[in-house]
Design a protein that fits this description.
Layout (H helix, E strand, L loop, with lengths): L1 E5 L2 E6 L2 H9 L4 E8 L4 H9 L6 E5 L4 H8 L10 H18 L9 E10 L10 E8 L8 E9 L4 H21 L4 H7 L9 E9 L8 H10 L5 E4 L5 E2 L1 H5 L3 E6 L7 H15 L9 E8 H4 L7 H13 L3 E5 L4 H9 L6 E4 L2 H7 L11 H4 L1
Parallel strand pairs: 3-4, 3-5, 11-12, 11-14, 12-13
Antiparallel strand pairs: 1-2, 5-6, 6-7, 7-8, 9-10, 9-13
Helix pairs in contact: 1-2, 1-5, 2-5
Length: 377
Amino acid sequence: MSITLKGDKEIENIPSVKRKSLRINLNDNIYGTFAEIGAGQETVRNFFRSGGASGTIAKAMSAYDKDFSDAIYGIESDNRYVTEPRLKRMLTHEIELIEDRLSRNKHPEKLFFSYANTVATIDFAKKFKGHGWVGIKFQLDPLEGYNEIILHIRFKQTDARLQQETLGVLGVNLIYGAFYMNDRPKELLKSFYDNLDTDQIEIDMINFSGPRFMYVDNRLMSLQLVKNGMTDAVMFGANGNNLLPAQVLYKKNILALRGSFRPVTKVNVDMLEKAQEMFYNEKTVDKDKTHVIFEITLSNLRAHGDINERDFLDRAELLCSLGHNVMITNFQEYYKLVEYFSEFTKKRMALAMGVYNLIQIFDEKYYRHLSGGILEA
């Protein structure tokens, strides 16, 4: 066992990367493929090094060349490679190959899986730190359908080699959690940071699907990401599915309405309608390229003590029924929310608020921690 530290605080004893890899390798039934694009074969390397890999690894590959990748997985409509559709296509393709090439009569007890990632590490100029999609498609019973866990990551480290190593650890944690912690999704989520720290990597979106996760509400899993400090903001759409903020908000106009929404009142709806009317009247704002967001801060969810998950889901259901995206953030100050939006767009942004919140914005006590005080904010 090894000790993981997060900051200066000792959290708990957890299995090392080697022990996790070895436990999977020594399981006679777990068998699958690894397809890693963009950051080396860092995950599968841990399984090769721990010993007994021949019982787990059917194939390991990296299709680095774009033409080779397209020949194997097909061409994406947007010609991009570090995307969720690309990852899903990789996972499905590799599972279909396993099912096609390995006889169920010969391997009646095998639990097949495919692990994949498509990643862009930090660029040479170190302007973009990099990001990627990581996922696993797996079964927990040979006669059952496949389950899927897909997540999006953003690197915080500024060295490509360190990013690769971090990705390798995360991959092991994901595979181990899928097979040994699937009945405890909240704990599984936390385990992604085993032998890692939040200053190494950010997980800003996750989706669970499949027969074993039918009871999992992905919006609640999004809430856990913010609550556990894995990311500062998550988003889900009107249909309740988790969304990647960077993808949804890229080069878009943004109109955000912050509140506790317990419940949504006529005042909230009136504020939104009036704000939309004013915002759409601006010459530089294209209505078709505008996203309206209901934003709830974590502090609002904790207003009455610990977060009540049922209360959160009730509010989420109501907001989703209005047809807009919902965002949960860890930004108490408005300027931090604006900074976050500015990462994805340079288009027009607007915040709708009541008079009380407007007055609070100009209260200097909220900016004493900034060297430039209220002027900096």
